[in-house]
Design the sequence.
């Protein structure tokens, strides 16, 4: 469904350049949830932007259902890391969530229904008439998520979508994402800095190295389709996998393990003393 | 626009702040009344020929504009012959300049190329003091409304245009990416995202333009007109009728005040979200 | 670099279009002469002594009014802003007087002063005082109390307080007020010149050549010069704001 080949990106020109992305290749199958983890500032957001057509990459290409992406495809929805700025302050919560639907010419009545449903999912049914600046950070983020979900996109790209919600809501939203995937067969590419979350949500976890970042490793998560916030996280597999991801993040290598498909670049240990 | 779709009336809990504002409002008027009274005393005592007393000015104003029959709500013919045409020209010119300025400003604010091509021309044209164009426009346009509209439009378009460009240009990068991820068409993007985001700046420009429009309305009527408040004042000047000239000055002051208040009310309705979001988040 | 090239292309393009329209016969070339003709007149005019006198007269009237207006408005503003009671009273009065368009005073000033330079300057001062006064009063009220208290802690005298704390703190806002006033004063000077032909100056030149003499090439050239003066004034103030006040919040207290 999504094929990323040899994407790299360098910011700036002349003397002050910064190569954020090295050479990144991977693909995502339909209905998969893939999480991307990596050290802060390594270029995760840049990667999502470059893949989705928001930012033309310096090299490489991404294909969505076989078509080369040059601008954001119709069937793709994006949740931005800067959620508070990505909401329109002049629209109410309803107006914000309905915005993409309105652009698609959906009737007012239908919009109303769909928006109510989406806001119900994220637990914001009571806040429809509020303005974004009247909401807490976590609530704003949920509005942004609802806005992405109403379009029922085939591919959902989320940049740290649950970063500023409290633990309880976070768990609920994670389960919501799993449910959406089950019901609509949505493909999800999600950036997170939370190791537990990456393992809990994913079918696969992509671990990135520091800038210029490359895929250090791809871990397959075989925890089954049904997952539970408590029991799944107690299984040996889960505990093992999250240790694996943590080690990869810290040392850039996982030791001896079959799940390690490729180790492109090993980061020296001293350099990762965070 | 969805901004006006709000159904529920926001009742601010802090009635105390409201009461404070009401007292401030009354206080201001009381001070102003005191000022008028002081002026009355001063002018009566001084008997300066150029400064008639406020009561004389008031009587003249009533005489000029409020002496009509009851069927016209006591408004005299002079209101319909002079004040109304003036107002129509003022508002018409201002509105036309506003629409053109906003549309051009949205496009130029979002297109670096357009901006680069035309910014030198714009920054020169906006520097031309509009009255310097009057003699030229008097020749180019028929005397009366066309020439006056031309003067007003040319003079007041710049604050709106420049503020709109600024507002559209400084659109947050995340907002731009958000809308790109939704694949809006360019006109839709300009109308539903750039325009509302730029509204606070646009209103600031519109307010500057409104007071400038009043100035230009007066000047253009002083120079080339057959009716209007300014024309009336020139006639009064020829007759050396100082109370009538002062009546015109006061009427123009009232117009300026009322128009500004009206625009503020509209601004509060349309971009209330902006002021409230500012005061809430302190951004 | 790309920007400069585009600037040039755009400006040349605009001039070329004007030239084409002027020569195409779409407009009467006597009424709207093409830029090349106007350019030629401009060169001639600057060798003309009387025109230069007109230009100098307009600029000096403007400059004198600005100096007087600033000298009146800044001290008054500091006084009004520093004594809260006085400040409240004056700001209430100012709120009602400010909306009066200053040009409404032109007929009165022409009667009172005749068609003289005094009329121009009196009007321009009257129009230019308000923005400076308003900005100064607000700026004084907006000074961070922490700054004042810090200064007090250093035992500054009243005079030191004024020159070392208050004046630097209000400078950006005063400068913004002066900038707004500068264009208002220019409008008033030119208006009076246009209205009272014998007042002299660039405005009178434009009136005499345009409406009076039907020499539109000269009139438009004069208008162009008025634009150049306005442009230069804008440039100077923008430069001054960038030079002395390198923070953009100066526009706040409008
Ligand atoms: N527009 C830009 N211009 C120049 N450099 C940029 C730009 N955007 C990001 N960068 C740099 O690129 C690098 C990667 O940024 P990016 O936002 O993709 O990181 P990230 O992995 O998403 O970080 P975080 O975990 O904090 O979200 C950073 O060093 C950043 O400073
Ligand atoms: Mg990021």
Sequence:
């Amino acid at each position: 469904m999504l094929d990323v080949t040899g994407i790299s990106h360098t910011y700036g020109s002349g003397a002050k350049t910064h190569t954020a992305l090295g050479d990144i290749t991977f693909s995502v199958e339909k209905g998969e949830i893939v999480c991307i983890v990596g050290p802060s500032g390594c270029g995760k957001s840049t990667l999502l932007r470059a893949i989705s057509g928001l930012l033309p990459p310096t090299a490489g290409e991404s294909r969505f259902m076989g078509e080369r992406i040059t601008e954001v495809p119709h069937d793709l929805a994006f949740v931005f890391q800067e959620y508070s700025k990505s909401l329109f302050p002049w629209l109410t919560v309803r107006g914000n969530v309905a915005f993409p639907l309105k652009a698609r010419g959906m009737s007012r009545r239908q919009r109303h229904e769909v928006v109510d449903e989406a806001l119900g999912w994220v637990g914001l049914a009571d806040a429809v008439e509020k303005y974004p600046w009247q909401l807490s950070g976590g609530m704003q983020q949920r509005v942004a998520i609802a806005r992405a979900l109403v379009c029922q996109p085939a591919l959902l790209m989320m940049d740290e979508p649950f970063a500023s919600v409290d633990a309880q809501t976070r768990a609920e939203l994670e389960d919501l994402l799993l449910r959406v995937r089950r019901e609509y067969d949505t493909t999800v590419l999600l950036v997170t800095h939370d190791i537990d979350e990456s393992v809990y949500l994913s079918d696969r976890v992509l671990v990135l190295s520091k800038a210029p970042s490359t895929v250090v490793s791809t871990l397959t998560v075989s925890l089954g389709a049904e997952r539970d916030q408590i029991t799944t996280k107690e299984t040996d597999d889960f505990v093992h996998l999250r240790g694996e991801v943590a080690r990869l993040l810290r040392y850039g290598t996982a030791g001896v393990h079959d799940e390690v498909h490729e180790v492109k670049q090993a980061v020296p240990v001293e350099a990762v003393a965070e | 626009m969805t901004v006006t779709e709000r159904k529920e009336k926001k009742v601010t809990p802090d009635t105390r702040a409201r009461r404070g504002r009401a007292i401030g409002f009354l206080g201001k008027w009381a001070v102003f009344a005191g000022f008028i009274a002081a002026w009355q005393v001063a002018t009566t005592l001084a008997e300066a020929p150029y400064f008639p007393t406020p009561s004389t000015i008031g009587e003249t104003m009533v005489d000029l504009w409020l002496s009509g029959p009851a069927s016209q709500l006591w408004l005299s013919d002079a209101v319909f012959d002079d004040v109304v045409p003036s107002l129509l020209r003022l508002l018409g010119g201002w509105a036309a300049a506003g629409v053109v300025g906003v549309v051009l400003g949205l496009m130029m604010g979002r297109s670096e190329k357009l901006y680069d091509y035309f910014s030198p021309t714009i920054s020169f044209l906006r520097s031309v003091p509009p009255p310097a164009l009057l003699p030229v426009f008097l020749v180019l346009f028929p005397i009366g409304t066309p020439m006056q509209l031309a003067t007003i439009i040319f003079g007041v378009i710049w604050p709106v245009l420049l503020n709109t460009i600024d507002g559209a240009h400084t659109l947050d990068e995340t907002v731009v990416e958000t809308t790109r991820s939704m694949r809006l068409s360019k006109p839709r993007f300009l109308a539903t995202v750039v325009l509302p985001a730029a509204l606070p700046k646009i209103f600031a420009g519109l307010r500057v333009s409104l007071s400038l429009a009043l100035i230009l309305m007066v000047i253009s009527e002083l120079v080339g007109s057959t009716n209007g408040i300014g024309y009336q004042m020139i006639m009064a000047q020829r007759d050396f009728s100082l109370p009538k000239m002062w009546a015109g000055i006061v009427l123009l002051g009232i117009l300026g005040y009322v128009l500004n208040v009206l625009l503020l009310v509209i601004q509060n309705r349309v971009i209330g979200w902006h002021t409230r979001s500012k005061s809430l988040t302190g951004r | 670099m790309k920007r400069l090239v585009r600037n040039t292309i755009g400006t040349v393009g605009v001039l070329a279009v004007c030239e084409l329209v002027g020569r195409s016969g779409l407009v009467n070339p006597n009424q709207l002469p093409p830029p090349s003709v106007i350019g030629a007149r401009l060169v001639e005019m600057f060798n003309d002594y009387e025109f230069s006198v007109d230009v100098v007269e307009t600029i000096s009237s403007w400059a004198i009014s600005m100096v007087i207006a600033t000298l009146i408005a800044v001290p008054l503003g500091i006084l009004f802003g520093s004594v809260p009671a006085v400040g409240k009273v004056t700001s209430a009065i100012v709120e009602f007087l400010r909306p009066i368009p200053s040009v409404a005073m032109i007929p009165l000033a022409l009667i009172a002063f005749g068609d003289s330079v005094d009329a121009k300057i009196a009007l321009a001062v009257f129009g230019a005082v308000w923005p400076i006064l308003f900005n100064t009063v607000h700026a004084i009220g907006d000074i961070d109390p922490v700054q004042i208290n810090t200064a007090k802690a250093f035992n500054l005298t009243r005079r030191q307080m004024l020159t070392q704390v208050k004046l630097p703190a209000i400078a950006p806002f005063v400068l913004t007020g002066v900038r707004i006033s500068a264009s208002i004063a220019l409008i008033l000077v030119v208006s009076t010149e246009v209205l009272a032909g014998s007042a002299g100056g660039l405005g009178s030149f434009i009136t005499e050549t345009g409406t009076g003499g039907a020499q539109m090439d000269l009139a438009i050239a004069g208008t162009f010069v008025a634009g150049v003066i306005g442009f230069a004034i804008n440039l100077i103030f923008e430069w001054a704001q960038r030079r002395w006040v390198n923070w953009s919040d100066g526009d706040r207290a409008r």
Observations:
- The pocket of adenosine-5'-triphosphate (ligand 1) is lined by residues A 11-12, 18, 20, 38, 40-46, 81, 193, 211 (CB under 6 Å).
- The first strand of chain A starts at residue 2 and ends at 11.
- Chain A touches chain B through 28 residues (CB under 8 Å).
- The CA atoms of residues 33 and 202 of chain A lie 5 Å apart.
